[in-house]
Amino acid sequence: MTPLRLIPIGSMNPGVMEYLALVLPESTGLTCVRAPWVINYTEAYLNERGQYHSTRLLDMIQVQADGARASGPCLGVTELDLAVPILTFLFGEARLQGRFAVVSAHRLHQAFYGLPGNSSLLLNRVEKESLHELGHLAGLRHCRLSSCVMAFSTSVEQVDLKEAAFCDRCLPVFEAWVQGWQNRP
Amino acid sequence: MTTPIRILVVDDEFSVRDSLQAWFRDSGYETEVAASGKEALAKMGRQRFDIFLLDIKMAGMDGLELQETIKEHQENPIIIFMTAYASVDTAVRALKQGAFDYVTKPIDPEELERLVRNAAERRLLQKENLSLKVQLEELTPFKDIIGESQPIQDVVELIKNVAPTDTTVLIRGESGTGKELVARAIHAASPRRFMPFVTVNCGALPEGLLESELFGHEQGAFTGAQFRHKGKFELADGGTLFLDEIGDVSLKTQTDLLRVLQEREITRLGGTKPIKVDFRLIAATNCDLEARVAEKSFREDVYYRLNVFPIVLPSLRGRAGDIPMLAGYFLQKYARKMNRPIRGISASAMALLSQHSWPGNVRELENSIERAVIFCKGDELLPEHLPIHRSAASEASSGLPLSEVEKIHIQRVLAETGGNISKSARVLGIDRATLYNKIKRYGLFVRE
Ligand SMILES: Nc1ncnc2c1ncn2[C@@H]1O[C@H](COP(=O)(O)OP(=O)(O)O)[C@@H](O)[C@H]1O
Ligand SMILES: [Mg+2]
Ligand SMILES: [Zn+2]
Ligand SMILES: [Zn+2]
């Protein structure tokens, strides 16, 4: 089975990585391994914005994956604040039907909104956004059901409305994608 | 399905075209890009677009000129301008010349999403597109409500009648009888189904956080409020707001609620301008509201605003005939979810299920079956897999502090599920992140 690789980018709360490594295999059916790749994220820094260019991070993950001859899906996980020049921020980015995705916890913390910290809520949000980006890798687009993990969210409040699961329509597509990787050596 | 909305993005910067194309594509719009007015016109010669997203400042033909040319080619084009802060004046001029709206660069994703959604809706109206209606009819919102007994069929009938309206619904019933399930079914069968269904568990809201949770706050409303936060009322805009455990709210909160229900507008904490909110209200409770009104712990005016269309859910005892069907349904659901080849429920196990009084109603039955599926190693559920049989699992736990009991219990469930977080969390009735945090707190094992 080809595993899903989790790549911490920058300094990452070990609890978040550990949690993802524990639950993603259960919720996706893919095995997960942590890839100790060094992503030189400072090269993705957007000077005037104080944020990081997420598309460039995807390119960097790809370079590392190619170097390591890793053929499976790769998910970067970071605390960095992600953006692209035209958009003020992103929770994550993925190449539709590609292999590379990145998700950021930066704006998923309650503290970012001036609210008391809540680590369970944070983990739930990171998990949902991770599944969402993996869904894009599987070729899924945004779902109109606000409870489906593929619903589009531009705010944490919308993230909280979603479940950490695909709806009946999205699930078969995702499962087929997972099976594709399970059947690979 | 009918043709999707087609967007043309015109900008001379590659990174803008690239990012926005990917962004719209993920949302299911068909998107083309052009690096100049000339290229845009060439693309328009080959296909029609519904929405145009134009950069104002471009070398050669700028956005305003392009707008004029597009209008010559096509009737009622929907044009959105992208502009730097410095050229907002120009954008305002564009609006006067008939543009749909403008956004400033860099674009707030939430604003872009709203704008494009509004534009798409306007377009669909123009085309009198029926795709939405078609999609609605594909859904079968009542198939999740299991039961053939008269009491539950009566409930389904009520739901069917009230769903298409905007009427406030009050759902009564014991805990676990399916109040939230029914609320979701009403939403799913209503014209609001593709807008959010927002749940507020009024019983669980800590008084201090309540206001910010319900009403949201503006940036800088209090120390630490670096960013604005949307409240649940706002989040439910266009959709359905489900106020669960409504009987538990304090008088102070009832007063706040009443105002929102009357005015249908809210003001964020630290904010000044009221925001209109449009939601369909569904409330639920398992307490005797009439008694609360009599003893003055529940406001009568709030009660009348809620009790417009009451639906009373039967207890599981009151429809015991549905137990085999429900048990079979949950067995199938969890056997499939956990990949277990379980064929059925043995006659003696079914007898046990049918005799039980189910004080926790359908939720208790569902949990029992789920748990049984986890523990069942064979191809048939037997009485010994059922928790109603294996009572008093905590023989030795009396006299221990609560946290110690919790720790021991979690440890036992983890051992029983082979360390599976998802299964353990389901058995324990908590979410996985909460379980993970408890595992950490108690220093229990973590499988790698
Ligand atoms: N008629 C029913 N058919 C199938 N499942 C049901 C039914 N009624 C309740 N359930 C299930 O039982 C559980 C508890 O229901 P819920 O709506 O949360 O109850 P309540 O809000 O009244 O406490 C849910 O998982 C729900 O799906
Ligand atoms: Mg409930
Ligand atoms: Zn997405
Ligand atoms: Zn979906």
Total domain modules of chain A: 1
Give the topology string of chain A: H per helix, E per strand: EHEEEHEEEEEHHH
Structural class estimated from helices and strands of chain A: alpha/beta
Mean pLDDT of chain A: 95
CATH H-tier superfamily of the largest domain in chain B: P-loop containing nucleotide triphosphate hydrolases
Number of helices of chain A: 5
Morphology of chain B: globular
Proportion of residues in helical segments of chain A: 25-40%
As residue ranges, the low-confidence spans of chain B are: 130-138, 390-395
How much of the polypeptide of chain B forms β-strand, as a percent range? 5-15%
CATH superfamily of chain A: Collagenase (Catalytic Domain)
- Ends distance of chain A: 5 Å
Under CATH, the topology of chain A can be stated as Collagenase (Catalytic Domain)
Q: What is the CATH C-level name of the largest domain in chain B?
A: Alpha Beta
Average pLDDT figure of chain B: 87
- Please state how the strands of the largest beta sheet of chain A are arranged side by side: 2-1-5-9-8
Summed up, the domain count of chain B is 3
Rg of chain B (CA only):
28 Å
Helix content of chain B: 40-55%
So, CATH architecture of the largest domain in chain B? 3-Layer(aba) Sandwich
